[in-house]
Design goal:
Strand content: 15-25%
Radius of gyration: 25 Å
Shape: globular
Bound molecules: zinc ion
Distance between the termini: 29 Å
């Protein structure tokens, strides 16, 4: 269930969230650290274009040249299959998405007039934002955005472009065409929200995405209520648009011969080539089932595919390709197209495995009440991957962790794969280290240097433990209902706090040095400094003045940090200090802080095990919600001077087959430097869907 998807919000410190269907899982704390990746070419320029609120980055594929020709070939076919689905996300987000994109692609590519003017720059920025969001709704906030250049200017450049190739309808002339698209482009009241989650409204009617047409939320709910949900039921509605035809609610299924046929047929063609070079029988079987599913559109075939995919643990190359995550649908049924092609990162995977293998030891030595401990812990199987390409909903803004499949019963009966995206994280870290956040907010040289040296490793270890032993630990008392029922709106925050506390408690344990995943306890100190600084100060850069904390992960980080600050006050475990009028955080006793984290872990586990709603509410509301307005103002002021873009995404590497006759003799990798050029190239090479699908 979960793909661990992500939202990117990365602010000063790189903070990413991964989402799953029930909770939002935090993948990583903060990265102030200087990244180390022995495989990566350090002269590689990570930063590409920046515009509006976006910084585009680049990433490398370390280890590419170590692959066999057959593995490279497999990657190449999966890469083409990924990009052939790119158009689908534009259409899913908005039924006019392809129409608008073809129009702006055309103007951007063919306008020959003056491109040095401020107006052109505004249009160019709009194009960048449009491509980055896969449409004209913000990729993170889901609200519509419009060009900053005037409509008159837009008309002038449209008329000076190769407008014969605009996607006009029937006998429509240019003026009629422009009149038709004006409200789509320029009117904020037309389709204002791609996904509208407000309570008390018809969320399907209010959301402008293209998952439904002419149906009310009531009709859709009634339609799906008739489907069986017991046992091994598929995820109904995942691969279709739901519409009303002649008064009857029906599904238009996304499959070969159905909706999106032009893209899906190509995907299938490339997947069929991939099957011929599969690494082993399990992988071959999984790919064959994926092809079968794309042909039948039958969701039971999709489940069979997911099970086969979970069983494929030996392959070095892996792929996600399909209608996967449901966050773009206000009622969480429709899957957005996405694809991620990857190579297993064996070195980083060793670290995750070493921790997962000790899951029982960690449980046995945990500070929680013995009656809340699991007698037998099952760790999550996890690996680190090197991304080769991403497309659809996974690009240009990307997750840094993926956890699939999403179906609950498959996860329970067959397990899941949890992965972290090493080379993507590496690029983020390079960028974060360059921007002066640590210099501005770090206490002193000792703290800063330690974070520079060990912060990235500390953060990686924190994430590994959060995932592999944090969420997996502890048990609920007999007869107590699941936490979503007992702890309700505080369940996510408390669950994330619990997983973070397991990681924080153990990172300062000699055990981690003994099992060889970190060189010394200095790594733990770096992580404590990072975590507390973020929890008490720097994460507030994401809030507007006057806001309190609402998002579960942000609440959890402040809860853990603030509780330790308050409880440790008499021993001055954590202090706020002022230097030249600026506020800093200082940890004065790391071991005492560890004990405090252990105490809070014990209490939150008790709350979860007993289903103590009032206890949970009290903790979160007291420590995790309120913001110190004065401090917040100071932090925003200091942060604004650093000029850091809040959102980041990526240019994809380009795979180029070297042909010998009609056979692939090698596959080369190029790393394009311009996001704008790549978007134009993708539009040209992978613009497979028409304006009315
Ligand atoms: Zn989590």
């Amino acid at each position: 269930m979960k793909l661990v998807y992500v939202l990117f919000l990365s602010i000063p410190l790189f903070t990413a969230l991964k989402r799953d269907n029930r909770e939002i899982v935090k993948t990583s704390t903060i990265q102030l650290a200087e990244p180390k990746d022995t495989n990566a070419d350090e002269s590689f320029e990570v930063a590409a274009e920046a515009f509006a609120d976006i910084q585009v980055l680049r990433y490398q594929i370390p280890g590419w040249n170590d692959l066999s020709l057959k593995q490279k070939e497999l990657c190449y076919y999966l890469y083409e299959a990924a990009l052939c689905g790119r158009d689908i996300i534009y259409d899913q987000k908005d039924k006019n998405g392809i129409l608008l994109r073809k129009t702006i692609d055309n103007i951007y590519g063919s306008y020959k007039g003056d491109k040095s003017t401020a107006d052109w720059k505004k249009f160019e920025t709009y194009c960048g934002r449009f491509w980055f969001s896969n449409g004209n709704h913000h990729h993170y906030g889901n609200e519509k955005f419009i060009p900053e250049c005037s409509w008159d200017y837009f008309v002038s450049i449209a008329k000076a472009s190769d407008h014969k190739r605009f996607p006009k309808s029937g006998k429509e002339n240019l003026d009629q065409f422009l009149k038709r698209i004006k409200p789509l482009l320029y009117d904020l009241n037309v389709n204002p929200k791609c996904v509208d989650l407000r309570s008390g409204i018809d969320n399907i009617q209010a959301s402008s995405n293209n998952f439904y047409e002419n149906v009310t939320q009531k009709e859709v709910e009634a339609f799906y209520a008739k489907k069986p949900t017991t046992g091994n039921a598929p995820s109904w509605g995942l691969n279709s648009k739901t519409v009303k035809v002649n008064g009857k609610v029906v599904e238009k299924v996304w499959k070969v011969g159905g909706m999106y046929n032009a893209s899906i047929s190509k995907i299938v063609m490339w997947l069929n080539k991939a099957i011929t070079v599969a690494e082993n029988a399990n992988q071959k079987k999984a790919l064959e089932l994926l092809v079968k599913y794309y042909k039948t559109g039958n969701l039971k075939d999709f489940d069979d595919y997911c099970i086969a995919w979970v069983h494929d643990t030996e392959s070095k190359i892996d792929v996600v390709n399909g209608f996967i995550e449901v966050y773009l649908d206000a009622i969480g049924k429709k899957g957005s197209f996405e694809s991620t092609v990857s190579i297993r990162d064996d070195e980083s995977t060793k670290r995750i495995k070493a921790i997962a293998e000790q899951a029982q030891w960690f449980e046995d030595h945990s500070p929680i009440d013995p009656k809340h401990k699991k007698k037998e812990v099952k760790g999550i199987t996890a690996k680190a991957i090197t991304v080769v390409v991403e497309s659809g909903d996974a690009a240009p803004s990307t997750p840094i962790g993926i956890n699939l499949p999403n179906s609950d019963w498959i996860r329970k009966d067959y397990g899941s794969k949890s992965v972290s995206l090493s080379n993507i994280i590496y690029s983020y870290n390079v960028m974060s280290a360059r921007k002066g956040t640590l210099d501005e907010f770090g206490l002193n040289d000792e703290v800063k240097n330690r974070i520079k040296k060990y912060g990235a490793l500390g953060s990686d270890l924190h994430t590994d433990m959060h995932e592999c032993i944090g969420h997996a630990s502890g048990q609920i008392n007999e007869g107590v209902e699941t936490t979503d029922k007992t702890l309700k709106n505080y369940a996510s925050c408390l669950e994330e706090a619990r997983a973070d506390l397991v990681a924080l408690y153990y990172i300062l344990d000699q055990k981690l040095v003994d099992i060889g995943v970190m060189p010394s306890l200095e790594v733990a100190k770096a992580q404590y400094d990072n975590y507390v600084l973020n929890g008490l100060m720097t994460q507030l850069t994401r809030l507007k003045p006057g806001d309190n904390l609402e998002e579960a992960h942000m609440r959890n980080r402040q809860l853990n940090s603030m509780w330790a600050f308050k409880m440790g006050q008499k021993d001055s475990v954590i202090q706020f200090v002022k230097q030249q009028g600026k506020t800093y955080v200082q940890i004065r006793d790391y071991n005492k802080l560890r004990n405090l984290f252990g105490e809070l872990l014990k209490e939150i586990q008790r709350i979860k095990s007993e289903g103590d709603y009032e206890g949970g509410k009290n903790l979160v509301e007291t420590y995790g919600v309120k913001v110190d307005k004065e401090l917040h103002k100071e932090i925003l002021g200091r942060f604004s001077k650093l000029d850091i873009k809040p959102y980041k995404g990526f240019i994809q590497p380009k795979l180029i087959p070297v042909m010998k006759g009609n056979k692939i003799a090698d596959v080369k990798v190029e790393y394009p430097t311009s996001f704008f050029s790549q978007m134009m190239e993708y539009g040209k090479n992978y613009g497979l869907l028409g304006v009315r699908n």
